[in-house]
Each structure stands twice: as structure tokens, then as C-alpha cells.
Fold these 2 entries.
Entry 1:
Amino acid sequence: MKTIINALKTVWKHSVYRCLSLSSFTLFFLLYLFTLPSSFTGGQIGLVSLQYLDKSMVSLSFVMAVLVAMIMTLMVWLIRQGQKASKASATGGVLVGIFAPLLCCSQIIPIVFGSLASLLPSAIGTSGSLFQGFIATHQTELFSVAIILLLLALYQNARKVMLGSCCKI
Amino acid sequence: MKKYQYKFIAQRSMLIIVLLLCGLFSTVFANELTPSVKAPVANFISQGQSYPLSEYHGKKIMLWLFSTWCHTCAAGVKALADKHTELQKNGLTILALRNYKNGGYPGPDVEEFIAHYSPSSTQRWIMGEATEVMNDRYNSRQYPDIYFLIDEQGIIQEKGTAPAVFIQKIIDFSKSKTAKQSS
């Protein structure tokens, strides 16, 4: 925790990084607000999504957007310092957070698995429904995984910021 | 890596991509029910008995196939229950049927699911489970939910997923005096 706070203090000394944090937070907060309710709209994203927002979705969107904004700022700082940023866990966290509600109840998985099944019917079979059912019934767990991945990415990048130029590539 | 190895990998990759594209096209353009087509003959199970869909010939019906693990379906139950009085007044019969084997993933019974999301206003819905034949004919792609608006002549006038999002289309269909002619 101390590492993260110190890293953010270091980076936020510069106004450009404060602006970057704010703009990425706004962007990702809006993105999550529109995509999280898509499990209730059959994958449709738009103003219709906002009707299905509840307190838990707004809180989740807020938490994930704050984490992504901090990670983005640290990553940009590291890259501009000529250091290597940790991207894998951050990407994983963002993708899980966005795709879990999108894939749960939309037509994407049936179409993709249907096309795969036309090539390998015995191997694919009805696994599309199993996959979709699993996503739909394990949304809480999937969002927890997304948050854990984002926290991990935040810690990894903060550590690199604190280690400084020793990790320069 | 030698040149011929690159060529071999490129050829194999191209073959896989072409096969996947063929699969995608065959899925997208597979025999799927489209509006203006006569609703195929199929039965469903309600309270342990088998009923043919043709039993509702002469009535405007909404045939809705859904899985009880799907969030869109829960939102659909709520939206249809909210507009229940209007839909009923306009003479729309709602056939709320669980997909055959619940779309391949376990979940609650249809009555339990509907009662959970709308305890009172859905008592007049016809609830049950689709047979395998009905699922094959109406939901061959195994969508978590799909609905069909079928007119008095048994012609499919509209189809879609997520009734909560398209509730206005359903209301408009229920209000329509005469059915559109099939093309």
C-alpha cells in the first residue's frame, strides 16, 4: 500500500499526469457504466444500458475506473522514463471486466461456437451454452478476478516506479 | 526458421482461417426462422402435458424461449410483467417457455424463475418447457433467449432477443389490428 501511495505521489507531482489520471478515469468510468449493464440488454450497449444501472454496478464501475486510471498513469510515466511497464495483468483485468457482462447473454458466443461447431461438431457440441451459462452465473467471481488483476497490475507498476532507473531498458 | 517452414505455417494458417470463415458464414446464414414465415409446427410441455403451438392459432402470441440462468431473461420477465395489463388488454398471449434442457446449463424451473422476478402479474402467462424439436426449429443457434411475435394467421411478424429492450415493439405488435401480409 505504501509503495502504491509513494509511487502515485511521485507521478502526480506533475500536472500532466494528474490530467491523464482524470481523463482516463472519466473515459473508463463511462465505458464501464455502459458495458456492465449489457448482461441485462442482451449485449446491447447504448443509452438503454443506463436504465439497468444500480448502486452495485455504479460502485463497481467507479472502483475499476479508479484502478485503471492509476495504472494507466503509472504505465505512461514508466514508458516515458524508458522503463518497462507491466501490461499483462492490467490488460487481463480490463478485458475480464468488459467482456464478462458482454458475453454472458449476448449472441456473440452462440454465433462463434456455432461456427466452430460446424467445423468440429463432436469437439465443440453444446459447449457454447455451458460457457455462457458459466459466465452468467459466476459474474461476481469474474468481477473479483478483474479487480484482483487490476490491483496486481497497480502494485507491479508502482513497484517499478519506486525502483526507479535501475530497471531501465 | 527456414523459408519453407514459414511457407508451411502460412499455408496451414490460411487453411484454418478459411475453414473458420466458412463455419461462420454457415452459422450466420443457416436455416433460421425469419419474419413473414409461417410459424413451424412444434410442441411444448406445460404442467406435464404436451401442447401443439397450433392450439393458439387465431390468437396473437409472443413465443419466448429463454434460459433461467440468463440476466437478460430476468430483465425480460420484469419488463413484460410491468406491461402485463396493457399486453393482456390488447389480446396478446405470452408463451414463456424454458429452452430445452435450459439451454444446456442448470438453473431453476420456469415457474420458480418467473415467480422470483415477478410474483403477481404473470399468472396468466402460459409457462412450460420447449421440446427438443421446438428448440431445433425456433432456436437452432441456442441463444439464451429469443422471442417470436406470431399473428392470428400463424405468421411470424417479428423476432428478436432481449424483450426488455424491445418492449415497445411487443406493445406495438399487440396493438396491431390486422396482421401484416406475408411477403
Note: Helices of chain B lie at 3-28, 71-82, 84-89, 110-117, 132-138, 167-175.
Entry 2:
Amino acid sequence: MNYIAQINALIRSRVAEESPLVMFGQNIAAGSCIGGLTKGLKSEGGRYVLNTPNCENTLVGTGFGLMLNGVSSIFFMKQQDFLLLGIDQLVNTYNIMRCRKIENSFTIVNVIVDSGYEGPQSSLNNFYDFCSIARIPGYAVSNKHDSEVIIGKHLIAPGFRIIGISQRLCRQELLQVEEGVSYDKNAEVFQYSDGKDLTVVCFNYSFPQGLALCNDFKKHHLNAALFSVNAMLPVDWRKILDNVKRTNKLVVLDDSKSVNSPAQHFIIAAQQEIVPGNLIYLSRKNEDLILGPNADLFSVDHKAVMSKLGFTSK
Amino acid sequence: MAGKPDKNVAQEVLRLRFSQMIVNQGNKDKQFKCPVHLAFGHEAIAVAVSACMKDKDGLLLTHRNIHYNLARSRSLKKKIDEYLCKETGEAAGQLGCMNLYNQDAGVLYTSSILGNQIAVAAGVALGNRVKKTNGVAIVVIGDGAIEEGVFYESLIMMRTYRLPALIIVENNGWSLATQIHERRCDIKLDLQASSLSIPYYHLEGNDVYGYIRLLEEAHSKALTDETPVIVEVALHTLGDWVMKTEEHSAGKYINYHAGAAPNVGLLNWPVIEESDFDPVHVLKKHFEPDFLEKLAGKVFADLREELA
């Protein structure tokens, strides 16, 4: 199963439990159904599927208006770029809504266009910025484990949040790990492996890079603890920091284009726990941001990481 | 006019006027921490909208909301306490003036961002459809908000899904300090409505009884035809003044926008302008002056008692 098929199956399963529910967005029941994201959603049993006009600002407001009127809803959006048109609602309407006791759910599920070759205007990989602007709960989904937990827990729950899907991962085989996966009660931080040699922490959609790095380390008989921070806002770092204290070697990966990432908050906290020089922070630099059509890859040089942390190949 | 006019309606117009005059005194004395946008001259439409609202309807307002909030929930003291950010305020001092709403009174939402609330109203109206309630989403905006893209978007959304809604456009001809002709081309709202097959009503003259009749008709149309209806209300926000400055020695006209209206006092007979711009003056078309003055005395006494 690939990533998008898994997410579609999880969404269909979860919405089948909810009524009334309004699912809306552009082309959600037409054509490819947003590349398969909303395939098979049906208007039945008190659930409504609406192919809407192209009016993003109003669509975000509509979700809040439904919430105000006691009806839960999901707004599916093909590209997070389009959400820029709804910023007023994300900030101002949400700020009013969060003052109330909210019993209904409003979730925006949108695709982060991180796949490259889209051109200067359709390569926004700045999920953190959307969430930061009004401290909106947001969740990145990268693999079998986090998709099951995050969609199960957050797709329909009292309040408002954004769930982001990676376009780059859409056609890829679903990533999963063999070992036991654990996560915190809010499904904000996931741990995929434990290890005494180093700690790897992934932000945004860098889990594939983090997993590949850990697997490579394993080949050299080095065991890494692998974490992924799925939340878009700073969270309780204690569990990761406890691990960092033990390993005293830390690699932080962040493939987003935002300079407003919780990775920065984490690093400030981690610097208190680790010997200077044992921390590697890999993110996109200004000079990496090519605005013309390009692969837009976030690559990690495994050998360089190993060398910088003082490990030698075994 | 057929039948005897309901004196309670006139009493409401007077209550809204006196209440605002009292708040205006507070503005003059700089009592309030929150900016207060008064709505002198808007009383007739607020009383008429409130009179036409049914149990299942919901009202969504703008930053200039004092007249509707007063019409929907009577306590002036709670409004004043809210503007003073007191816990005894209508929203426990948590919302202030520009975002004041009161769900128990049918005021669901209030936005200080131009046009923001019409998108939320589309969602409220869609929720009524999903829940199969017979409610109408009533959203108030100004003539400035019809320039925003969200206005057009929301009309399309409401019309596409045939959502019962009343869009009340309070057209006072101003956006802050600029008049319509100073900032934009003319917008023929009737033609814009027609292009989307949305019914349109035009109200002017501040006759609260006439407004109620037309709003009842518009409300009924929204429900029976399952459609949004635009109601454009031509009005004049009273409280303007002329200010002498170095650049304008003869005096510069200042349109009232927010805060104190310096030339509006607290009068026994609360007319601000002897013209059809003033809904209190227009009451004389239905009642003898002696009767109105007595009624005004009672309303004022009741308010003073509430605030004592």
C-alpha cells in the first residue's frame, strides 16, 4: 500500500463513524479526488460531500460557521498554498472560536506541495508558519504508524486543527518500522527506535531521511534513537531530552522552508543537555532555496554526519 | 399606514438612542478601555431586524454592533461593564466592544475584520441546512465590506447551496474617513445580486415600521425560496462635526466613525437631526410629539434606574 492509499483508507474509516459531518473542498468528489486523498467519500447517513466553488477564504469561514452551529466538518485542500487566502479566518475567526467552549470539530486536511518541479509559486513547504500565526494545532503525517494515530485521534475531535499530507510521499510505498512505536498522549511526538549511540529527531516531513540515516548507522553497528516531532507547535521535549542526555550525540533534521520552526525551540533546550559540537542541525539554508522548478530535495549526507559526530565506519 | 403602530417598537428605537447617548457620555469622559463604535442613525434597522428574528435565526455582526446588541439583549449596564472590561460585563469582560456577541440572545458571532463574518454566516447557514432547522443566518455588514473579495465568495457559496440568509448591508457611504466616491467606483448592488440570481431589497428613510414589513417579506422569501437575500439599507451615521484646524480655518467636516460624538449630548427628547436621517425624528410620522416625549421620558427614566 502506498502513503496516499493508506491515508484515504484511514479517513474513510474514521468519517464512517461520524454523523452529521460535512466534508467539503474543491474537486473532492471529482476527477482524481485530490490525487486519491478523498476518493470514495460519499454523501450518506448524515454525511455530506460538497464539491465547492473556488473560494478559500469563505471555505475556511464556513468551517468555523458550521462549528458555531454545532456541526463538525472537514475541509480538504489540494495545496496548502491556497490556504494563504484564508489567513484572516485562520487567525481572527479562530481567535474568537477558541474563546468558546467548543464541542464540535473542524479540521483542514491539506497537501503540502513538497514534491518539487512545481515552480516558484507552488512549492510552499511552510506548515509551521500557518500554525504559528495563531498557535493552531497542526500535525504532519509521514508513515503507517503516525497516520493511524493522528487521523484516528485528531481528524474529528472537539476544536480546530490542520493535518498536513506530504505530496512527495503520496506515490511512495508506505514507510513503517519493525520495532515497537510509542507516542505521547497528544500524538505530537513519536519514537520509532531506541539506541545508545545517538539521537535523531525529525521535524516536518523529514522522517524518511531520519529513518534512512538510522538504518545506515545500523549497518555500521551504531544504534540510534529515532524520534519524529509531528506537531507544528513546540511541545514537551522531556522524553527526547532524556534520551539526548544518555546518547550525548544529536542529529536534528528539518526539511521545512520555515525559519519559524519548533526545531529551533528544541535545539535551544537540547543545548543545555549536550556537549557543544555533538549536535548537528540540518535544515534548508537560504542558498538552498531555488525558486525555479527543481527537485526541491532535502538530502542528508550520512558520511558527513557520521564523521562530524566522531563515528568511524565499522 | 394600515393599523395602529405598535408603541413598543417606537419605545425600542428610543431605548437604543438613549442607551447610545449614555455610552457617548462615557466616551466623552474617556471611561472605556475598548474602542466603541456608536451607531446613531442606525436604530431603525437594528430594531427592525431584531423584531423579525425567529427563534432559530442567528445574527452575525460587525465592529459597529452596539445597536444590534442592545436590541437583542436589553441590559445597558452589562454592555457598559463589558466596555470597561469588568467581570460583570455581558461577556465577563472577555470580548470588549468590537467582538461582543451573546449567543443566548441570538447574536452568534461578531467580527471586527471587514467582511470576515459573512464567510462564517455561510457556515452557519449550511449548518442550518444540515440540521434541518428552519433558521435564517442574518449577517450585517457595511458598504466597505462589499469591496472585499470574501463578500463575493460568500454570496456564491450561499447561492450555490441555496442557503437561507439575510445579508443586511448598512450603507452609510463611508469607510473610516473616506466616502465611497473618494475610494472606489460605484457598485450597483442590485445588479450584483441579480447577476447571482439573489433577491435584493433596498431600504431607506428610517421608518422602522416600513423596515419591519419589508424585512418580514425578505425573511419569508429566504426560507421559502431557499436563498440568500441582500437587503441594502441607506443610512446616515449621525454624530459628525466640523473641526477648525490650521489647514482648514473655515472648518473641516469630520464623519463620525468611533469614540465620542462631541456634539451629541444627553437630551430629554433625543433627536440628533430633524430629518429622515434620524430614526427618532421619523417616529413623528406615526405618533404625536407629546406622546413621543412622554414615552422618551419613561425610557430615559428606566435606563437611569438600571444604571443607578
Note: Chain B touches chain A at residues 58, 94-95, 99, 108-113, 116, 118-128, 130-131, 137, 149-150, 153-154, 156-157, 160-161 (CB under 8 Å).
